[in-house]
Amino acid sequence: MWGSGNYAAVAEKIGEVGAACVERAGVEPGMEVLDVSCGTGNAAIPAAAAGARVTGVDLSEALLAIARERAADGLVEVDWVQGDPQELPFDDASFDRVISTFGHMFAPDHQRMAAEMKRVCRGRIAVCCWTPGGAVGRMFRTIATQPLLWGTEEHVRELLGDGELEVREIEWSDASVEAYADLMLESFEALGERAPELRAAFIGFLAAENLEDDGTLRFNGEYLLAVI
Prior knowledge:
- 40% of the residues lie in helices and 24% in strands.
- By secondary structure, the chain is of the alpha/beta class.
- The protein has one domain: 3-Layer(aba) Sandwich (Rossmann fold), CATH 3.40.50.150.
- Strands 3-2-1-4-5-7-6 form a seven-stranded mixed β-sheet, with helices on both faces.
- β4 (95-101), α5 and β5 (121-130) form a beta-alpha-beta unit.
- The protein is globular.
- The mean pLDDT is 90.
């Protein structure tokens, strides 16, 4: 779904979360790091810039192609692998850090996703997901059915174990409510004929969340950062 739309533009808006995830995970030079459902490399590239040996895995070859370009522009090396995050093609305990920012939450089988992340990790796991009660969580309920359970402390502890969990915010902005709605719906290209209906609902939602009154858009997205 993401590879068919304009997810790369959306990913640029949340780039700082990848850097925050890498920092909280304690990524250091020489470590072996895996970015699960890496998308366009928002976490993999900062990890490589920190001196780690990084592998990024994702189902979408289209997103990996963008990630390769971004890594080249950033003068860092990452091993990009196309594969199913629920069947990671790596040996047990292969990585010092396993990270994921907003990609792992789309795996259909949460138990299997968590089990695979734990299987290949010999150190810490760090993941970020939108909280269900935050603005972005409410947004997803407007345009999709993803339950965002990974954004709840109970679900993360049940799947991965206890650790350090904190709620953070990131600011989203755009030239207008309509411009942002169109950007997001382009990323959900697979919605097809439902797009006009959802656009109207989404614009109404964004207008209610908007913190500005000058025609531009600004709202805060709340997410859970967990380090296990």
